[in-house]
Write a structure and sequence with these properties.
The chain is mainly alpha-helical. The protein has 13 helices and four strands. The chain has helices at residues 33-46, 51-59, 64-70, 80-86, 89-102, 104-114, 118-129, 140-149, 154-170, 192-198, 213-226, 242-248, 252-266, and strands at residues 2-7, 10-18, 138-139, 178-179. Helix 2 crosses helix 9 and helix 5 (89-102) crosses helix 7 (118-129). It is globular, with a radius of gyration of 20 Å. 46% of the residues are buried.
Length: 267
């Protein structure tokens, strides 16, 4: 039997939770999105999402721009040289060296704690958001929920949708928080499930805030270390830590670019 469940003391009409309902079914157009959200709410609640996260799910909108971007990721099909040119590698390296020179103690402290050299973290920061210059203009929750509904990579994005809703519960983000079109958030564009798992409160203010540079870079270093980064080992292709860079982004040209830029920044 299906019944409407009390959420945070009020009825949320969109959240119809069924004790024995099947998992939410994906779709390839916006037509079934609202019905899917109601079904997915049951999955989310079983995963531990609470009232604020469930409300953010209910308010999520089908992200047409996200679907368009997901179908048209041309840059990852470029050659390495073309990719680095398009993504501004020379500028990232030049600015990255200056950033490292301005804050040597900060990056040295991260390397002592996590074993990840400054060049790698700075290269990721520059590649992802131009050092925080642009962190996205899409709703994180709507984007990641839409990708979970979409049949193309639903299972990949599901833990990140659950992660985003739990981040809302925790107060790290809200339903209005902006990020990239694929739901990545903060200075280094963490997918929400990874933000939930690997996020670090590095500035000691009591919350993990990936829109804060200190938290974001420490969280990035923590992610890489937890994925198997070996302190003191190389990170170019064929070296032990290159496999860890693959854990950050699946595109080969991206991985190669980070390794090359990181080495140039580290000098």
């Amino acid at each position: 039997m299906c019944l409407k469940r009390l959420v945070g003391g009020t009825f949320t009409a969109a959240l119809v939770l069924c004790a024995h309902a099947a998992s939410a079914q994906c779709g390839n157009t916006s037509a079934g999105f609202d019905a899917w959200k109601s079904d997915f709410a049951a999955d989310a609640q079983r995963a531990g999402v609470q009232s604020r996260g469930l409300q953010a799910l209910a308010n999520a909108r089908y992200a047409t721009r996200t679907i368009a971007a997901d179908r048209n990721q041309k840059s990852f099909r470029y050659s390495l040289d073309k990719f680095m040119q398009v993504r501004g590698a020379d500028t990232i390296v030049a600015q990255g060296r200056k950033r490292k020179a301005r804050s040597p103690d900060f990056y040295a402290a991260l390397e002592r704690q996590y074993g990840v050299p400054a060049g790698v973290l700075i290269a990721i920061h520059g590649m992802e958001t131009a050092f925080g210059g642009f962190m996205g203009d899409s709703s994180v929750v709507s984007a990641i929920v839409t990708l979970t509904y979409d049949c193309r990579r639903s299972e990949f994005f599901k833990p990140h949708a659950i992660g985003a809703l739990k981040l809302v519960d925790q107060g790290s983000i809200t339903g209005a928080t902006k990020g990239a079109k694929h739901g990545e958030l903060g200075h280094t564009q963490f997918l929400p499930g990874n933000a939930l798992t690997y996020g670090v409160d590095a500035n000691g203010d009591g919350r993990v805030d990936l829109y804060n540079q200190t938290d974001a870079l420490a969280s990035t270093a923590n992610f890489l270390r937890q994925k198997g980064w070996k302190p003191g080992q190389g990170y170019q292709q064929g070296q032990p830590n290159f496999a860890v860079i693959k854990q950050w982004n699946a595109a080969t040209v991206y991985q190669q670019s980070i390794a090359i830029m990181g080495a140039r920044i580290d000098g």
